[in-house]
Each structure stands twice: as structure tokens, then as C-alpha cells.
Amino acid sequence: MLDRPVLETIKDVALPHILKAPNFFDVFFHMIYTMEYEVAQSRLDLAHVVLHPELKGFSWTELHRAKEIIAAGERAAEEALPRIKALIPAFGPSCPLPRR
């Protein structure tokens, strides 16, 4: 039978790795995110304007932070409005968009 110090050493070495191992949902969400990212990347060349909201610090699984994420997207859209308007003939310089 193993003595107590050896068992404690094994526990001290193995337990942190077991606790840090990703669970099923982490792996599943990462897989879905990777697939969605690859699909989006393949479609970027079709876009006239691509919005890049500042989303550092957010995970796509954080639905409870939707208001913050939407606000970041709205800021990116506001910044891109001149480029978007330039691509639409009806929104020439004489036809500004209303401000909120």
C-alpha cells in the first residue's frame, strides 16, 4: 500500500490538470465557434463593408451581456456609415442619414 505522502504528491500533481481539463460544453462551443469563424472568413471577400466591433473581453456564449455587445456593434456601424453611404447612390452628400 502507498504511504500518505506519495498519495498526496500524486493528488497535488494530477488534480490541477483534471480540474483544468475542458468540459464537454467548452469543447463543443469552441468547435462551433471555429466552424462559424471559418464560414464567416470565407464570405468576407463578398462584402463591400465589413464591421469590426471591439469585442475583446466578450465570449460569444455570454448572452447575458447582449446589451454591451449590441452597443459595440452599433458603435462600429456608426463609424462605418460614411463608407456605407458612399456605396449607396441615394445617400449622396446631399442626403444625410438622421441622427438618433
**Quick check: average pLDDT?**
81
Overall helicity: 55-70%
Largest sheet: none
Compute the number of structural domains: 2
State the order of secondary-structure elements, H for helix, E for strand.
HHH
Overall geometric form: elongated
Rg over alpha carbons: 24 Å
Proportion of residues in β-strands: under 5%
Residue stretches low in confidence (pLDDT < 50, at least 5 long) are: none
Distance between the termini: 74 Å
Tally of alpha and pi helices = 3
Structural class: mainly alpha
How many beta-strand segments?
0
Structure description:
Helix content is 59%, strand content 0%. It has 100 residues and is mainly alpha-helical. It has 2 domains: 1-46, no CATH class; 49-100, no CATH class. The longest helix has 22 residues, at 66-87. The protein is elongated, with a radius of gyration of 24 Å. The model has no long low-confidence stretch (mean pLDDT 81).
Write the layout of secondary structure elements.
Layout: H1 4-20, H2 24-43, H3 66-87
Give a brief rundown of this model.
By secondary structure, the chain is mainly α.
Keyword list:
3 helices, mainly alpha, 2 domains, 100 residues, elongated
